[in-house]
Amino acid sequence: MYKFSANVVKIILSLFGRINVYQKDNLPKAESYVIACTHTGWVDILWLGVATLPIEIHYMAKKELFQSKFTKWLMESLHAFPVDRENPGPSAIKTPRKLLKEGKVVGIFPSGTRSSEDVPLKRGAVTIAVHADVPIVPAAYVGPNNFKDLFKRKKPSIIYGEPIKLAEGVSKKEGMEVLMQQLDQAMNALHDQLKNK
Fold this sequence. Notes:
Layout: H1 2-14, E1 20-22, E2 33-37, H2 42-52, E3 57-62, H3 69-77, E4 81-83, H4 91-101, E5 105-108, H5 124-132, E6 136-142, H6 147-151, E7 157-160, H7 172-195
Parallel strand pairs: 1-7, 2-5, 2-6, 3-4, 3-5
Antiparallel strand pairs: 6-7
C-alpha cells in the first residue's frame, strides 16, 4: 500500500514539476536510521516520501490525524503512527524504537509545527536515535508548501546530509546536547545550500 500510494503521489506532484534530489547516497544502506527534515508545509512530507523511495519511511504524526476513520486508514497505510505533541507518553519513544529495531526508517520533523521561520528543534528525533543507537540523517526541503505554491510551479528540492551519531564513550545526556547542536547546524547548512543552488 505504501509504495502504491507514494507512486500515485509522485505522479500527481510531478505534474507541477519534478523534484531535484541531492546527496541521496548519504542514506545508510545497511542499517536503520532516523531522517530529520525541515518542515514548512504539508507538501514537504509528501516529497520526502517520494524522494526517499524505494526506502519506506515510518512517519511520526500528530494524533489529530487519526481521529476520523478515513484519515486513520490513510495514515496507517502510509506507515504513520500517532503521537500526542502536547503530552507525549512512553509510546512516543517506544513505537519508533521498535520500528528502528526491526530495521525500518523513521521520519521526524524536529521543528514540530509547520513554520517558515526559525524554530528551535524539539528533542524527539535525537532522543529516539540515541536510545535506539541509530544515526540521524539530516535533510532539508525547499519548494512549494501548499496548493497555491504548487500551482505557481515552484521548483522542489531535497538534500540529505551525512549521518550523525552519538560518539562512543559519551554519556547519553551529554551526547544528546551535542547531537542537538550538530543536527540544528546540519539542517540549517543544508537549507542554505539548497537555497543557493
